[in-house]
Design a protein that fits this description.
Layout lengths: L7 E4 L3 E6 L11 E6 L1 H11 L4 E4 L1 E3 L2 H12 L8 E3 L6 E5 L6 E5 L24 E4 L1 H5 L1 H17 L3 E4 L12 H9 L4 E5 H8 L4 H7 L5 E6 L3 E8 L2 E8 L12 H14 L4 H16 L20
Parallel strand pairs: 1-4, 1-9, 2-7, 5-6, 9-10, 10-11, 11-12
Antiparallel strand pairs: 2-3, 7-8, 12-13, 13-14
Helix pairs in contact: 1-8, 8-9
Length: about 325
C-alpha cells in the first residue's frame, strides 16, 4: 500500500477507569487508581507508540475527567485537536471490581458526551483528508446517534476513497434487545480491513471456522480472524481468490488481564501494514504487541516501541 500522509484517525469513546489500587474488591477498597480506556483510543496509543502518527476523534465532557483523558493521550503523542468538549454531558466512567475468578466491570456511560453524538455533530470532522480511519463495533452499540455516526463515517470514507479498518469488538451487554449480528456484519462488510475473534463470530453468526467467517465477510480486502491464544489468520482477497496466512500466537506466561489485548493486536498489525510488511510479519507484530499487553492490568502498556520486532519480546 501507499505510504501514509498524515495521522491515522481513530474514532470512538474513551472513559476514565476507576480500579482499586490493590486486588481488594470495590466494596471494601479505600485506595483507587484512575486510568483511561477505550478500544479506539487504545489503538491510537499503540500506533503512536509503534511510530505511526495517530489522532483520536471523539467527544468528552468539559470536566476534569475529560481533561485527564486528553492529557493521557497527548502524553504518548496522539493528536486530540479534533476532540469536542461538551458542557452539557459528562465524560463516561467505569469501575473494575477484582475477583479471584476474573474482574467484573461496571459501566456508567449512559448519557456520556460521546454517546450523545449524532451524524450532524461530525459534519466538520476532516475524514476526507485522512489517510486511514479506524472504527470498532463498540460505537454503534452505544446509542442510535452513535449508529448514525458509524454509518456517516463509513459513507463519507467510501465516497472519498479513504480506507477503513473495523474491529468487530462485540460487547453483548451493549446490544441487548437489538440484532447485533446483522448490524455488525453490515458495518464490517463496508471496511477494507476487518478484525474479528472466532469466539465473537460464533456468538454473532454461528460460524465455527475462520474460513467461514472470511467467506461471509465478502467485501473487505483483508479479514483477520483471531482464535484466542492459539493463532490468527489473515484472508487476503485477490483476483485468484483468498490467500490465507496463519501465525501462531505467542506463549504468554503470567497473564494479568486480557482486556485491551485485541486493541493491541489491531494496532500492531496495522502498524506493519502501513509499512508494507508482508502478511506473516504483520500478524506476528499483532501477536507481539498483544502479548506485551497481557502482562499488565491496564489496557495500554507503553514502551513496546517501533524498534521492537516480532520474535524479540520476552
Amino acid at each position: 500500500m501507499k505510504a501514509l500522509h498524515g495521522p491515522v484517525v481513530c474514532i470512538g469513546e474513551a472513559m476514565v477507569l476507576v480500579s482499586p489500587a490493590g486486588e481488594e474488591p470495590l466494596a471494601t477498597a479505600s485506595t483507587f487508581e484512575l486510568t483511561m480506556a477505550g478500544a479506539e483510543a487504545n489503538v491510537a496509543r499503540y500506533l503512536a507508540d509503534l511510530g505511526t502518527e495517530a489522532s483520536w476523534l471523539s467527544s468528552v465532557g468539559d470536566d476534569p475527567l475529560g481533561e485527564r483523558i486528553l492529557s493521557s493521550l497527548m502524553s504518548v503523542g496522539v493528536n486530540t485537536q479534533g476532540v469536542a468538549r461538551s458542557a452539557d454531558h459528562p465524560t463516561g466512567v467505569f469501575f473494575k471490581d477484582p475477583e479471584p475468578t476474573g474482574s467484573r466491570v461496571f459501566y456508567y456511560r449512559s448519557g456520556s458526551a460521546f454517546s450523545r453524538l449524532t451524524a450532524e455533530d461530525i459534519v466538520g470532522w476532516p475524514l476526507e483528508q485522512a489517510p486511514w480511519v479506524h472504527l470498532s463495533g463498540v460505537t454503534p452499540a452505544l446509542s442510535a446517534g452513535c449508529r448514525q455516526v458509524t454509518e456517516a463515517v463509513l459513507r463519507r470514507c467510501r465516497a472519498a476513497g479513504v480506507p477503513v479498518s473495523f474491529d468487530v469488538n462485540y460487547r453483548p451487554s451493549l446490544w441487548s434487545g437489538r440484532s447485533a449480528g446483522a448490524e455488525l456484519l453490515r458495518f464490517a462488510r463496508q471496511a477494507d480491513v476487518v478484525f474479528v475473534g472466532l469466539d465473537e463470530a460464533q456468538d454473532l453468526w454461528g460460524f465455527d471456522t475462520a474460513a467461514q467467517v472470511a467467506d461471509e465477510l465478502a467485501g473487505p480486502g483483508l479479514v483477520v480472524v483471531k482464535d484466542a491464544g492459539r493463532s490468527a489468520s489473515e484472508f487476503a482477497t485477490g483476483p485468484e481468490g483468498a490467500v490465507v496466512t496463519e501465525v501462531e500466537a505467542r506463549n504468554v506466561f503470567g497473564i494479568v488481564d486480557p482486556v485491551g489485548a485485541g486493541d493491541a493486536f489491531a494496532a500492531g498489525y496495522l502498524s506493519q501494514l502501513f509499512r508494507g510488511c508482508p502478511s506473516e510479519g504483520r500478524l506476528q507484530m499483532g501477536h507481539s504487541v498483544a502479548a506485551w499487553t497481557l502482562a499488565t492490568a491496564h489496557d495500554f502498556r507503553p514502551g513496546h516501541g517501533p524498534t521492537v520486532r516480532p520474535g524479540t519480546e520476552r
